[in-house]
Design goal:
The protein contains 17 helices and 12 strands. It is an alpha+beta fold and about 425 residues long. It has 3 domains: about 110 residues, SET domain (Beta-clip-like); about 150 residues, no CATH class; about 160 residues, Alpha Horseshoe (Serine Threonine Protein Phosphatase 5, Tetratricopeptide repeat). It has a 3-stranded antiparallel β-sheet. A 3-stranded antiparallel β-sheet has the order 4-8-7. β5 and β6 form a beta hairpin. α11 runs parallel beside α13 and α12 runs antiparallel to α13. The longest helix is centred in the N-terminal third of the chain and has 21 residues. The termini are far apart. GO terms for molecular function: histone H3K4 trimethyltransferase activity; zinc ion binding. Keywords: Chromatin regulator, Cytoplasm, Metal-binding, Methyltransferase, Nucleus, S-adenosyl-L-methionine, Transcription, Transcription regulation, Transferase, Zinc, Zinc-finger. One of its GO terms (cellular component) is cytosol. It is found in: Cytoplasm, Cytosol; Nucleus.
Amino acid sequence: MKNEGIEGTERFLSPDRGRGLRAVRHFSVGELVFACPAYSYVLTVNERGAHCENCFSRRDDLFKCGKCKQAYYCNVDCQRGDWPMHKLECVAMCGYGENWCPSETVRLVARIIMKQRVTTERTPSERVLLLREFESLDGVASCFIILLNPSVRCLCLFVSFLLFFSVLPCFTCFFCLQVNCNGFTIEDEELSHLGSAVFPDVALMNHSCSPNVIVTYKGTVAEVRAVKEINPGEEIFNSYIDLLYPTEDRKERLLDSYFFTCQCTECTTKSKDKEKMEIRKLSSPPEPEEIKSMVRYAKNVIEEFRRAKHYKNILFSCELLEMCELSQEKMGAIFADTNVYMLHMMYQAMGVCLYMQDWDGAMSYGEKIIQPYSVHYPAYSLNVASMYLKLGRLYLGLEKKTQGVKALKKALAIMEVAHGEDHHYVAEVKREIEDQK
């Protein structure tokens, strides 16, 4: 396949950012800029049985792979479509059973390696950026890191010893930063994790904390839509991170994960930082050092919660909920309820309540979160849409019809722009609203 490019855009050298993508025509809000099928992808283990391994469709009538009994498909066509990649895991799952547990990143890397071995031409995922153009660490340092990484052993569970060492340079290239820096998390309409994928053309877009496009997913295809008016000659910017947090936090996350210091307009002006870091109105305002100390505490709690995020049982979830409540109580001595660190812990508490089927508790947290989210996030934010969606469904489940329909309509208004009016998630929400009439 020759390099056909993406209509309406062009690859160019972006000042201070390296290669990037810019518009050569006008794009309106909600307009599809381009779509990109995944070069390679993998369904997360937690969604097996609920989604098809090949097309990621959410269905109740999936059938199992006849060999490993662990992969599920819509039909024979989907099974055949996934077999070139699934056969790696199928053999390992049959042979190792429950002892087979490589990370999602390792599973994705293995699929990329195998696809590169059988694919010589440019793919539909690489119209403007080839996979091999992804940046990585160089030379001996890369090889040393990869050989020391314990995840290599997991890869050996389903790639033969001979094959592994015959593709070591390729694996080195990907494992050292490639998938972590250029990979994408595929999520559903409530931002639940479905799987991981690589979309080379989507990865070409540079980051901004005030992006003009948003990436959503239709199965295993990434769709890039404008969330601001984009004029000819303007660079197309995506966001690599959650935009809830203040400037210094965002910069730290980008530096740690993507190895660059963001200099976008939002990071330069810090226009939203005051609202995001709102302090409780007290008779004696806290000293700057007290605020810094509380921010450090909040970050430590967030990291601790991240490590313990897998709810193993109801008892463990109760401990997580208590942890959330205690952290809110401590931070609340200084931070207002609209402070982003307070909101973070409320969001985690809401997730625990949903897991424990404490619908009233989840609803209570959602009601506290939604308005500040609408202020802190950009327009047409998926985070805001998913919160309205969760709240709407909670209201309907608790027989609060009027509130439920109102919340679903607010979610729908965002989703029609972010996902497109023809997306099946949009159709599902419309049916939910229609069912209440």
